[in-house]
Amino acid sequence: MRVYSLLIFDWDGTVMDSTDRIVSSIQSAAQDLDLLALQDHEAREIIGLGLRAAIQQLYPGINDALIEPLKERYSYYYLEADRTPTSLFPGAKKTLESLHEKGFRLAVATGKSRRGLDRVLAETGLGWLFEVTACADETASKPKPDMLMDIFQRTGVEPEQAVMIGDTEFDLEMAVRAGVDRMAVSYGAHHIERLRKYQPILEIHNFHELEAWLDDNAGENK
């Protein structure tokens, strides 16, 4: 059994229940620019990607001149105008704090922008828990492995000493490409059936299950 020293978390749909606001914000942004209306399931498909990559997937062949305005409108809605509630998933804060106390090193690899992640880490008060964070506007978007490789370079951790925890195919495919073990979250944007093809070592249905599994299988890393 591998002993994991570094736990890498996706954010939206894994640590924070923000899926509905993402969907609503991208729909509002598209409406402002008179783009084809998006159904909820279409908007959910891109959660986890960097914003530019998400837009290009939603609107194949979109004029480059529209991408930046759409990004700006999305950010406006998500950060300021949209009032769709977001909150940490039940047990997330307590579990993350406990894992940190037990000596696990924690990181974030997210499709959010640096501005968006820094803001939410400040709002939740969780920023101090994460040794390193990587955002989609700083490197190639998931599912390319660049984000994880950047984390390994900055922490000195080898891929076999880390595990990626995420709720989308983009998270788990990124981990596969980087040679990293994977844990699949069942309560996020993509249905668990879609994640099983990436052979996760654990399916997480409640956040606290992660700590229980690590206690049983990996022990404390102090």
UniProtKB/TrEMBL annotation:
A Pfam family recorded for this sequence: HAD_2
Name of the molecule in the record: HAD-IA family hydrolase
Organism in which the protein naturally occurs: Neptunomonas concharum
Entry keyword set: Hydrolase
SUPFAM superfamilies xref list: HAD-like (SSF56784)
GO MF annotation list: phosphoglycolate phosphatase activity
GO biological process, one term: DNA repair
GO cellular component: cytosol
